Amino acid sequence: MENLLVVVQFLRSHFDSPILIYEASSYSTGMVSSLIGKEAAYTFEEDGDTIFHRTKYINKLVELSSTSLVAVWDCDVIIPPNQLKEAVQVLKEGRSSFVFPYEREFLDTGVILREIFIKKRKIEILLSQKGKMTTLYAPDPIGGAFLANRKDYIAIGMENPNFYGWGREDGERLHRWKGMGYKHSRIEGPLFHLSHPRGMNSSFHNDREDQEKWNDILRIKSFGKMELIQEIQKWGLA
């Protein structure tokens, strides 16, 4: 909850852009909507599943959006504003359909630096302390956040709903971009991940699940454009 509030407030302090939040849980406490207020548009859906079906809910957010560009953003990610502005410019100029607003540095802040940042809310603190952070998902991280031309994102099937629970969906998506012939880019600079405890929705549930997801990635990677289009049609997306 802290990370969500910090991320929304950080984005709102630098950008005048709609922010959409989708909460799925067995019941609504009203906490998110009360704390967020008018900072973002909030949607709740009753879902008794203890596993968060992330891909399904991202697709619902994209369907709710009305802008020509969208950013799929984890609720614990901070990126320097200049990088995000550059990513938006790349999309507006049509140089790419998808942009990662960071390059190779996917950095976990750790507990202490996270607390310092939350107190000060200065991006300079994170930038000056990169050497004290833990690098995640090296050497080519592809999670956390990306920006997209909404029309192109929908054309490639958005998120694959067959990826249920945490992990590997970022790799599958990237292979689909490539297989469908869409260009993606990276913006030089870091991504900062605000540390948090990892529960069932932040890790693989078992080795079999991980292997099945790898097999699906390899299958998608082997497809040509027409095969990908046929595969996406099976998902029954709007």
Short summary of the structure?
The protein is of the alpha/beta class and 238 residues long. It is built from 10 helices and 10 strands.
* Gap from first CA to last CA: 31 Å
Which H/E pattern describes the elements?
HEHEHEEHEEHHEEHHEEHH
Q: What is the overall silhouette?
A: globular
Which value, in Å, is the CA radius of gyration?
18 Å
Nearest-integer average pLDDT: 92
User: Biggest sheet, open or closed, and with what strands and sense?
Assistant: 4 strands, mixed
Record field, number of beta strands: 10
Which stretches are low in confidence, meaning pLDDT under 50 for 5 or more residues running? Answer: none
Strand fraction: 15-25%
The percent range for helix content is 40-55%
In spatial order, strands of the major sheet run 3-8-5-9
**Based on helices, strands and strand pairing, what is the structural class?**
alpha/beta
Number of helices: 10
